[in-house]
Structure formats: C-alpha cells, structure tokens
Amino acid sequence: MNVALIIERIETWRGGAETSTMQFAEHLAADGCRVSILSTSYPPSTPSLNIVPILVNGRMRALRTGLFVKRAQEYVRTNRFDIVHCITPCPFADVYQPRGGTVPETLARNLAMRGSPVRRVLKQLGQRINLKYRVISGFERQLLSRRPWVIAISRYVADQLQRHYRFDPQRVRLIFNGVDPDISTPAERASHRAQLRRQFGMKDTDLMLLCVAHNFRLKGVGPLIRALAWRVERERAGTARAGRASVVVVGRANPAPCTKLAEQLNIRDRVLFTGPTPRVQAFFHAADVLVHDTYYDPCSRVVLEALGSGLPVITTRFNGAAERIVDGREGYVIDSPDDVPALADRIERLADPEHRRACAANAPRAVEGISMRDHARQVLALYEEILRSGQAGRGERG
User: Fold this and answer.
1) DSSP bridge partners of 212
2) Which site from 80, 197, 222, 290 is most exposed, i.e. has the minimal number of CB atoms within 10 Å?
3) What's the rounded Cα separation, in Å, for the pair 21 and 376?
4) What is d(CA 372, CA 27) in angstroms, rounded to the nearest whole number?
C-alpha cells in the first residue's frame, strides 16, 4: 500500500505530535506500507521512509502554509497514492488525523489561558484577524465538509469534532494515541534515580515533582509553582507529609517569567529548569510524580509515557490522556488548570509514600493495549477498509 502522510512540520523536538507521527510512520513501514512523508522539514534520513521535502518561501506563516498545502496536493496528484493521510488539514485527503486537536478547540483553550476578561477579549480579537488561524481553519472546514474518515486520538478529540463541526460520528474512528512500552530494567531505573537526584542535590526521600513541557504557559507551570508554594508553607509549618518538595521542569522555553514567580513566592530554591533533554525517560525514573497541569492537550504523549514508566500523574480534564486515569488509582485529574488549591491537594495526597507506590504500580496498566505498534495496525485496518469500500482517491479529485 502506497501512503502519503502530510504534516507541515515534523521536527521531533517540537513535541509529542511530531514524535508520534514519525514513530507511527516507522510502524506502518514495518507492516509493509510504502510511506512518503510530505513536509517542509528535513527529519533525519531513514531507510524505511521516503521523506519528500515540500519547499515553500515567504515571510508570512499563513502564506507558507497555503503554499505547502497546494504543493502537497500537486505532488499527490502526480504520484498517485492509495491513501492520503493528513495531520495538517488538507482538503484533498482521505484520512484526517488532527493530532493537535481541532482548530476551534485550540483557539478556545488558548483564550482560557488569559486570566482576565479584558485579556481574553483582546486575544479573541487577535485570533479573528490572525491570517494563519484563518487559513488553517479554512482548510479544516473545507476538508471536513468533504466527509473524510477522521482518526480521533482520544474521546476528547472526537467530542471536539461533534461540538465544533457537528461532524458525522460514523466517520470518526477512535484510535487512541500510542506509546511504546518502557523496557528499562530495575537496575537502570535505580541508577537514573540516584544519578539525577545526586545531580540536583535531592535525597531519595525528597518529593520530586516533574513537569515536561515546551510551552510553560500552556502546560500550567505557573499554577504548579503556586501549588508548590502552598506545599512549602505547610512544610515550614510542620503540617505537610514528610519529604522536601521541589519541582523540576524539563523543556525548551524561556524560564524567566516562571523564575520571577518563584522568587516572588520565596521558593526559588525549590524550582529547577533543566532545558530540553533526550533523556526524558531517565527523569521519569528519578521523579515521584508527573504534574501536567495543562490548559490543552488532545492526548498528551508525555502523560502516557510517564504512566508507562510507572510514574503517577496529575493532569487536567482538558487532556485526552486523562481518559486513561482513574482518580486515586494511577494519579488524579483536576477540573481546571487554574485551580491551585485542587492541584496542591492532589500533590499532598501523592506525598504519602504508600499511596504513591500503589499509584505507581497501577500506572503501567493504564496504557496497556495502546502501543504505537497497535495504533499503526488499527490505522492500517482503516486504510484497508477505505480501499475495499472504493472511497479513496480524494487527492485525485481535489
């Protein structure tokens, strides 16, 4: 089967969607598909994938996106694929997989990050005149009006399609986001824990709260720092559970605003920013809890990976990955990323070593059956169903 996979940017340092797409493509290729990735990026060469660079120029992001979609369509028409599968919305695709969620939900959740009504109104006005959003939104509306098959990576994404577009649920296939299992040995896990804690000056009994994010505002680092301040106050008053709590933030973003907040709250020594790292799994082994207080995640790969590594998780209902968590069993799901008291309460619950160990033991079971290999095979089964039904070929008709 000859598959075109279309995604405008594919640099894996950008986050989970890009990493998932590359891993998904590798698994498709391993199952016998000829996969061509059409992108403006230049990912590392791989013998199993055909990387097709779609060259675009222009200072404006909206113009570049428009040219990318147009030239991708030209390439698809010329080379004739069995299935055209897009991550970036392209009106001519057979399959749409919005790994970043729908455009309207993305905009709505970006508004939710603004703390005051005035700021939300100003942001909304900016969104309405932003040409990039208008172009992407137009492509998505046009694509969905043609009734492609849509792969939802969580029920949250499936719900978005219904709420924002009233899209036919019979054309939506729920194929949950996938992650590969953590196959580290107990000795490797212990080594990572000891090494990183020694590096950060933490004892084994200290409570290490981990946050992995490339967008600190979107992933709720500010509320996490405020929740940590509540915990530290209880420590100083002698009313907290045992263990000195600290936050370690891993990711590519400017830490200055968060550092300033920590200084204002008198907990600067409890917040560490490491920058990006290729050793995220080692941080899972060193930490006690992953806190992903996100304003928006269609289905966070970091959360799924942490669960697979046996790390309890605190996240929000605006994260599709929360669908794998039962409160008190693998971690906790809070209703709002702005609810600092609720976040502080869940951190305090997981400060109990016995409860934390029980959640850690349950965590890997939360991601059983959603490996990236299983994800790719379910998508391949959908491709075969589309071909049998004779519904493929939108790329040629567009």
Assistant:
1) 250
2) 80
3) 10
4) 7
pTM: 0.92
Are 2-178+371-392 and 186-367 the same fold in CATH? yes
**Which residues are within 8 A (CB) of 375 and not within 5 positions of it... i.e. 6 or more apart?**
24, 27, 175, 176, 177, 178
95 beta partners: 85, 149
**CA–CA dist 219, 228 (Å, integer):** 15
Distance CA 322, CA 312 (A): 12
CATH code, 186-367: 3.40.50.2000
61 three-state secondary structure: helix
Is 352 buried (19+), middle (13-18) or exposed (0-12) by CB count in 10 A? middle
Number of Cβ atoms within 10 Å of the Cβ of 3: 23
Asked whether the beta carbons of 318 and 300 are under 8 A apart, the reply is no
Structure confidence by residue, pLDDT tens digits, 305-346: 999 999 999 999 999 999 999 999 999 999 999 999 999 999
Both tokens of 63, joined, read: 């113009």
What residues does each domain of the chain span? 2-178+371-392, 186-367
Task: At 127, list the tokens.
Answer: 């969104």
CATH architecture of 2-178+371-392: 3-Layer(aba) Sandwich (3.40)
Residues 6+ apart with CB under 8 A from 305: 179, 182, 280, 281, 284
3-class DSSP assignment, residue 11:
coil
Q: Encode pLDDT of 64-104 as tens digits.
A: 899 999 999 999 999 989 999 999 999 999 999 999 999 99
What is the full DSSP assignment across 286-324?
H-SEEEE--S-BSS-HHHHHHHHTT--EEEETTBGGGGG
User: What DSSP string describes 337-394?
Assistant: TT-HHHHHHHHHHHTSHHHHHHHHHHGGGGGTT--HHHHHHHHHHHHHHHHHHT---H
Cross-strand partners of 208: 246
Non-local (6+) Cβ contacts of 214 within 8 A are: 13, 14, 15, 251, 252, 253, 276
Encode 193-251 in three state secondary structure.
Answer: HHHHHHHHCCCCCCEEEEEECCCCCCCCHHHHHHHHHHHHHHHHHCCCCCCCEEEEEEC
Q: How far is CA 97 from CA 54, 85, 152, in A?
A: 20, 7, 6
Work out the number of other CB atoms within 10 angstroms of the CB of residue 103: 21
